[in-house]
Amino acid sequence: MATQTVDALADKPEKTILTSEGDVHKQPDIEYHPNEEKWRARTARRLAENPALPKTPLPKGYPHVLDSPLVWEGKDWKDESQWSFDLTAVHLKEIDGALEHFKGLNVKPGRVNQDTFPLPTLGPALRDQAKELHTGRGFFVLRTIPVDSYSREDVITVYAGVSSYVGSLRAVQDKDAGVLAHIKDLTQTHPAKAIGAPAYTTDKQVFHTDAGDIISLFALETAEEGGVSRISSSWRVYNELAQTRPDLIQTLSEPWTVDGFGGDPTFKLRPLLFYTDNKIVIQYARGLFTGFLGLPRSADIPPITEAHAEALDTIHFLAEKYNLGLNFQKGDIQYVNNLSIFHARDAFVDTNTKQRHLVRLWLRNEELAWKTPPELETQWKSLYYSAKPDEQTFAPEPEIRSASKGGGGKYA
């Protein structure tokens, strides 16, 4: 049964702030779910007010064109075999053997790694796929882990063990050094005010990035209808902006007010777009600037500007224009370069017997990793180096991450 859309439930207070000159600046008319009509009207209005915007110089040193396998459009891919890696019977037997080996060690779950989860032939193949993430197309799908053949604890161990060959470091995503997050509709069991992220609804999730280098999603179950996983090259989006709207690249490269949603500090200032070591990196989640359901945009922090609002919508609609829909099946693991690819998902419908349920790891491959932009170094250090293996925990059941809880938590 489809749940009520979050737009109908969300608290949408008008937000204003008084500047030192006494002028009142309002939060633009923008919500989490992008509105194409509003976007086109805002773009037309801003260009009418300042026709010189498209002639704005790019930030110093930024490239006019990115030329890389990471620049692609959805129509460039003709067949799933171009991005999927199919597990063979030999690979599956190796995984079973590695699981039994790890369980025989009687060590804590966070100790699962390439040494404790040996995959003689699959391991090297996965290391090759990790190179594809960093220097090739930027994504691949591993197909297919027989989910129903394992207990929940064992399937999580398999997921972590296999993924260690793609990225050996796992980021902390939640309190108690939780490194595994669940993506599942919880609107039937939790009030709307407790939900501060679209991951816990059936709603469409707009194009965005997570935190960290590599995003990995493992499908424990798919929806009855909908829920298509979509990805889009942020480098392709950059190229279009550089050609047509360099002013928006300028806007994205300047500091934005990132909402702390009641945390300390109440907000942070950082760009959304970086150019480091000859690589473009875009790191943003729309909800940080619009709020979502139980986490509305804080009223006591500086609002975003009309330029910011246009940039957010432009990123989304260009990513949508060039997206690739992945045929994400039960038992598949999706690996994505979070520094060069946006991801999103369609709205979906669950039933009592078939409910979309993903688990997520944020990974880093220290041998292949891109240089982290200086403005993100503190966050990355906290993500990947704050918890020792014996401290890492893997939540077995869905729960709302502390960073995504409504009512004063932090958005992630």
TrEMBL record:
GO terms for molecular function: oxidoreductase activity. InterPro entries: AlphaKG_dependent_hydroxylases, TauD-like_sf, TauD/TfdA-like. Residues 112-362 form the TauD/TfdA-like domain. Keywords: Oxidoreductase. The keyword Oxidoreductase applies. It comes from the Eukaryota. Pfam families: TauD. Gene3D superfamilies: Clavaminate synthase-like. This is Clavaminate synthase-like protein.
